[in-house]
Design a protein that fits this description.
Blueprint (H helix, E strand, L loop, with lengths): L16 E4 L10 H22 L10 H7 L5 E8 L3 E8 L4 E8 L5 E9 L16 E11 L2 E14 L2 E15 L10 E4 L5 H23 L5 H21 L3 H4 L4 E6 L7 E5 L3 H4 L5 E4 L7 E4 L1 E5 L11 E5 L4 E5 L6 E4 H11 L14 E6 L2 E5 L5 E3 L8 E3 L1 E4 L2 E2 L2 E6 L1 H6 E6 L8 E6 L15 H4 L15 H8 L6
Parallel strand pairs: 4-9, 5-8, 16-24, 17-22
Antiparallel strand pairs: 1-6, 2-3, 2-11, 3-4, 3-7, 5-9, 6-7, 7-8, 10-11, 10-25, 12-26, 13-16, 14-15, 14-18, 18-19, 20-21, 23-24, 25-26
Helix pairs in contact: 1-3, 1-4, 3-4
């Protein structure tokens, strides 16, 4: 109540968040005030916004910075596994500390905590801000849209710790209302976004620029009384939000994390791992393939081909290989929050025709082809359990295609999402970098205990064989990116 909400944004592979502030200004506006506000907003955008929203978080943290955050390089944290669809860490929030579980999501950007007074949060709403001596509420309120549903909350700051890492005044969104059925039986109580940390501020300043343009057009046309007043209030709110969001650091920045890695165990039910301030790829580059990030504010890399390949000569074509997509290039988003692969519509149709899944029972899983992803001269291979699972209630046991459908194109081609199946096969390092040009993803074949092996290393038998999984889709957390790629025809990455 009593809030002014900005206009809806176009589709971005960005924060997916709408911010606004309480409406407490009088409606009466005069021409000098309109012009002054426009000038102020424009000046702030030019001088502050572009500086605050720059990519990267500076050089790798040294000495005092790491000590202040309580971290050492290569801090390895275990992620608990719930039915191979949710992997979560344990956070401490508040003083005294309250433990909340948290999905680590490379496809979102901020920390989101479900409050104990939340309507609709179900089992996820456990954090009680009234019990924390260090909790402070902010002025911004927000609506966040996920593939699993929508939530609303307000800005807050409090003490937050993850493993040995800590931040005294970590900014986060405290959710008080949710329309997300998954939360009724979810194992997570917060969402830790570890996408590129400058994205929320960049989004906010982009919104300021649009609001200024709209208000400037209205001012030039002489329409002040009704649309002009609304638009100027919109500029005020957008500017206030952008300045506050720019001052509120994401956890990657507050914890002085320049690079982190993720790996998920291959065996059903096995744990995953998050490694803060991981320097293995820097110290042992020969172990890793280097994939430049092409997304402006997302972990997107350029993929140049996708094939199904089996060892025998009798699959689809004489050479045992069948092309299914990306001949002219596509954008592959590496998203740890997405439970399945997300595949363009045309590629799904080709996979269905080639595989004829109805003819495969569960004992035939090992006979299915590998999914081969090409990145320039590099090839990364995923076993068949990356794209199939046991069909629910099938007796005898049958296999089915287990991917989600993408309908989005991007600046670099159709959009794929390489979700949890990719992280089960490859130890993946996300390097924020000091600039967009230096931002990169580095991957190495993962060992059985989630450590990197050198490219070309022959995987151990228990890593190479596919595992039969029964996936309960009602337990899947669907991040903002899944909502965007399944509902939008074009996505700015």
């Amino acid at each position: 109540a009593g809030a002014v909400r900005p206009r809806t944004r176009p589709a971005f592979a960005t924060s997916g968040v709408e911010h606004w502030v309480p409406k407490d200004e009088p409606r009466g506006m005069c021409r000098p005030r309109v012009e002054a506000l426009l000038l102020a907003a424009g000046a702030a955008l030019a001088l502050d916004g572009r500086a605050w929203a720059q990519p990267g978080i500076g050089a790798l943290a040294e000495g005092a910075q790491l000590q202040e955050a309580g971290l050492r390089r290569g801090t390895r944290l275990e992620l608990a596994n719930y039915v191979d669809l949710q992997y979560y860490a344990s956070l401490s929030v508040g003083t005294p500390a309250q433990t909340v579980t948290s999905i680590v999501d490379t496809g979102s950007f901020e920390l989101v905590v479900f409050s104990s007074d939340c309507q609709g949060c179900g089992k996820a709403g456990v954090f009680n801000s009234m019990l924390s001596d260090t909790h402070r509420s902010g002025h911004l309120v927000t609506q966040l849209t996920y593939g699993s549903g929508d939530v609303e909350g307000n800005q807050a700051k409090d003490y937050v710790a993850l493993g040995p890492g800590r931040a005294k005044r970590q900014s986060f969104w405290e959710v008080h209302r949710a329309s997300m059925p998954l939360l009724g039986h979810a194992r997570f109580q917060s969402i830790l976004g570890v996408g590129p940390p400058e994205t929320p501020a960049s989004d906010a300043w982009d919104f300021v620029a649009r609001a200024v343009r709209e208000a400037s057009d209205a001012a030039r046309s002489g329409r002040y009384r009704s649309p002009g007043e609304f638009m100027v209030r919109n500029v005020e709110n957008a500017l206030t939000s952008a300045m506050e969001i720019s001052r509120s650091k994401a956890m990657l920045s507050n914890f002085h994390v320049r690079a982190f890695s993720m790996c998920l165990g291959r065996k059903p039910g096995s744990s995953g791992y998050l490694i803060w301030n991981d320097t293995v790829a820097q110290e042992h580059p020969q172990l890793f393939w280097h994939l430049p990030v092409v997304g402006k504010h997302s972990w997107t890399v350029q993929m140049t081909g996708v094939h199904l390949r089996r060892r025998g000569p009798d699959f689809a074509q004489a050479d045992g290989e069948a092309y299914i997509g990306c001949r002219d290039g596509c954008g592959a988003i590496v998203d740890s929050g997405t439970s399945l692969m997300v595949v363009p519509t045309q590629a799904i149709a080709l996979m269905s025709d080639l595989l004829q899944m109805a003819s495969f029972d569960c004992e035939s899983l090992h006979e299915l082809p590998s999914l081969v992803l090409t990145f320039g001269s590099m090839e990364l291979s995923l076993p068949p359990d990356a794209y199939v699972s046991r069909k629910k209630n099938s007796y005898p046991c049958k296999l089915e295609l287990s991917v989600l459908q993408s309908s989005s194109a991007s600046e670099v081609g159709p959009v794929w999402i390489l979700g949890m199946p990719f992280l089960r096969q490859y130890y993946t390092t996300f390097d924020v970098g000091e600039s967009l040009r230096k931002r990169a993803i580095r991957v190495a074949p993962a060992s059985g205990n989630c450590t990197p092996h050198a490219p070309g290393f022959e995987l151990a038998a228990d890593r190479a064989k596919p595992y039969l999984r029964s996936l309960d889709r009602e337990s899947m957390y669907l991040p903002p990116l899944v909502k965007q790629v399944t509902s939008q025809s074009f996505l700015r990455i």
